[in-house]
Write a structure and sequence with these properties.
CATH superfamily of the largest domain: Crotonobetainyl-coa:carnitine coa-transferase, domain 1
Number of domains: 2
Strand order of the largest sheet: 5-2-1-6-7-8
Shape: elongated
Oligomer: single chain
CATH architecture of the largest domain: 3-Layer(aba) Sandwich
Number of helices: 16
Structural class: alpha/beta
Order of helices and strands: EHEEEHEHEHHEHHEHHEEHHHHEHHEEH
Helix content: 25-40%
CATH class of the largest domain: Alpha Beta
Strand content: 15-25%
Largest sheet: 6 strands, parallel
Number of strands: 13
Distance between the termini: 35 Å
């Protein structure tokens, strides 16, 4: 058990906010030694994002920062200081991976453009995450999650039936660009085993939103349909969505004709009713279908319906609040909460990685670092 497949891999992390830190979080969870380089004084922008903040006055920590920076080392460098810039270059020379999400031109102004990095370390895998991708008419624009959700079309088909356009409840563009970036790094590291050379990898918030549109994208590209918000309904399958029960809401997924024939009798419907006898008809008559289903579901509790549906083999589940999620025995079984000892906060719980490796093992999680906590360890000098 080596503590993850990337154990022994060194990552220099120049990122801040969420997209880049999410990428390096995934690499850290896989066992990489991630050295997070932060600005003197303030550090990563998210150290100041809140409330909520936790901890004693003067030593507060942002829960936003804590969410994506576990198992990393923090060092402080001032890139305007020549000595600190040279320290950074020394780190890069011995690193396997460099990750940055600066605006275009910043790396070049520091003497760390693509050509300089390749000369400095030919084996370096270099991930650059941007808002709108490299070049093109929008490549210069700064990237923020909600802007990318809007410009990438995601908001246009998310939200209640008829609108208004609605963002996803987490910064999904940031997280997806980090996930795609981490995947790109892993692929480039695998290729390096054959070629012996590193390469530049790019991902963007805009590209990541477009990249996950799946059947919504082909609705337009192939069928010529522009998707609109449909609330909790599925745009192509019925019944599939959320329904009110006597004491809460339930999700159901009747994704095949076989499931429909098992489901319909449970809600006192005839599976051969001409209006609903196949998925196309159910979609065409979805308002009538949902009215009958809603009336039936209100007759019993969520738990009763989950049990009935489960016995019939129909996929269903409660719509839970986060406190209910983290109290779930299944979440505990899957090890999706990491408990770590933070240097100033004591024992804290964090959302954990869902990925497991059968042979390489799982890295033991470490607490998110305080600002500059590992400067002395990394550079052999006093912290600060």
């Amino acid at each position: 058990m080596s503590g993850g497949p990337l154990a022994g891999t060194t990552v220099v992390d120049l990122t801040r906010a969420l997209a880049g830190p999410y990428a390096t979080l995934m690499l850290a969870d896989a066992g990489a030694d991630v050295i997070k380089v932060e600005r003197p004084g303030k550090g990563d922008d998210t150290r100041g994002w809140g409330p909520p903040f936790v901890g004693e006055p003067g030593a507060e920590e942002s829960t936003y920062f804590l969410s994506v920076n576990r198992s990393k080392k923090s060092v402080v460098l001032d890139f305007k200081d020549e000595d600190d810039l040279e320290k950074l270059k020394r780190l890069i020379r011995r690193a396997d991976v460099l990750v940055e999400n600066f605006r275009p031109g910043v790396m070049e102004r520091m003497g760390l453009g693509r050509d300089e990095l390749e000369e400095m370390n030919p084996r370096l895998v270099y991930l650059s995450i941007s808002g709108f991708g490299e070049g093109g008419p929008d490549g210069h624009r700064p990237g923020f999650d909600q802007i990318a959700q809007g410009e990438g079309g995601l908001m246009s088909f998310t939200g209640p039936v008829g609108g208004p356009p609605t963002k996803v409840g987490v910064p999904i563009a940031d997280m997806l660009s980090g996930m795609f970036g981490a995947f790109g790094v892993a692929a480039a590291l695998a290729e390096r085993e054959k070629s012996g050379r590193g390469q530049k990898v790019t991902s963007s918030l805009l590209g990541s939103i477009v990249g996950i549109q799946a059947f919504q994208g082909t609705r337009w590209l192939i069928a010529g349909e522009v998707p609109e918000p449909e609330g909790n309904r599925h745009p192509t399958i019925a019944p599939y969505g959320a329904y009110k029960c006597a004491d809460g809401e339930i999700n159901i997924a009747v994704g095949s004709e076989g499931l429909w024939r098992r489901f319909a009798p449970l809600v006192s419907m005839d599976p051969d009713d001409e209006r609903f006898s196949d998925n196309g008809k159910r979609r065409a008559n979805v308002d009538e279908l949902e009215a009958e289903i809603t009336s039936a579901f209100k007759s019993a509790s969520v738990d009763e319906w989950v049990e009935r549906l489960g016995e019939a083999g129909v996929p269903a589940g409660r719509v839970k609040t986060l406190d209910e999620v983290y109290e779930s025995p299944q979440i505990e079984h899957l090890g999706l909460v990491d408990t770590v000892g933070h240097p100033t906060l004591g024992e804290i719980r964090l959302p954990g990685s869902p990925v497991r490796y059968g042979r390489s093992g799982k890295r033991d999680p470490e607490p998110p670092p305080t600002l500059g906590q590992h400067t002395g360890e990394v550079f052999g000098a006093p912290d600060g």
